[in-house]
Amino acid sequence: MNKSFIAGAMIVVSTTLLSGCVIHVGNASAMDGNDVSTMLGSVNIASGKHAGDISSINGNVDIDEHGSAEDISIVNGNLDMESHVTVRRVDVVNGDIFAASHVTVTQDVETVNGDIFFDSHGEIGGNIETVNGDIHITDVTIEKDLATVNGDIDIEGDSVIFGNIVYKSSDSKWIDEDDHMPTLTIGSNVTLHGSVILERPVDLKIENQDIKGKVICLLYTSPSPRDQR
């Protein structure tokens, strides 16, 4: 997570800095291939167009089919990627990520307070990670880990995870005080090359028998009075 982007809530202008409007990449307001930065405005990458790095505060980012971009950083806004979109990295605070079919992210996908949805034939070359967000993937390949703290995870179809599925302990400043027990749901056809690592209580709904045997509990338990003697 790009902490300097979050803490400062500032945008470094590379090409375009606009507020209160929509930037359409590929026309006069933002040339194809350039970086785009905006406050209080949204960004649209037209079909087949390419943008460099995209930075947005209080605005959504939409990428039409066959569009592409480099690093995407959003505070208080959603990211919507249509089919056959390619981006390098996604970093969102207080916003959801929606990816249609055949979307490729070559590095990491991260949110703090936001859900992540990836449809069929998606590919993530790094990690998928949330703090207080849910993760829903179907027929998606993840090269590294899939991790959360408070969010539900739902993995369906012929999804493949080469790393681990991790529930991290809730000791972060980002955690909601109204903590709940999240649910991990894994369909019968999912392939997991790593392990399911639980650092906190989780409700498990795992249909795949092979994955059931890969669950590792690292939960802290208080010593009993007998153990303290």
Walk me through what this model shows.
With 229 residues, the chain is mainly β. It is 4% helix and 40% strand. It is built from two helices and 26 strands. The strands form two sheets. It has a 16-stranded parallel β-sheet that branches. The protein has a ten-stranded parallel β-sheet with strand order 2-4-6-8-10-13-16-19-22-25. The protein is globular, with a radius of gyration of 19 Å. The N terminus and C terminus are likely disordered.
What are the defining features of this structure?
single chain; 229 residues; mainly beta; 16-stranded parallel beta sheet; ten-stranded parallel beta sheet; 2 helices; 4% helix; globular; disordered N terminus
Tell me the layout of helices and strands.
Blueprint: H1 3-8, E1 17-19, E2 22-25, E3 36-39, E4 42-45, E5 54-57, E6 61-63, E7 68-75, E8 79-81, E9 86-93, E10 97-99, E11 104-105, E12 109-111, E13 116-118, E14 122-124, E15 128-129, E16 135-138, E17 140-142, E18 146-148, E19 153-156, E20 160-161, E21 165-167, E22 183-186, E23 191-192, E24 196-198, E25 203-206, H2 209-212, E26 215-217
Outline of the structure:
By secondary structure, this protein is mainly beta. The protein has helices at 3-8, 209-212, and strands at residues 17-19, 22-25, 36-39, 42-45, 54-57, 61-63, 68-75, 79-81, 86-93, 97-99, 104-105, 109-111, 116-118, 122-124, 128-129, 135-138, 140-142, 146-148, 153-156, 160-161, 165-167, 183-186, 191-192, 196-198, 203-206, 215-217. The strands form two sheets. The chain has a 16-stranded parallel sheet that branches. The protein has a ten-stranded parallel sheet with strand order 2-4-6-8-10-13-16-19-22-25.
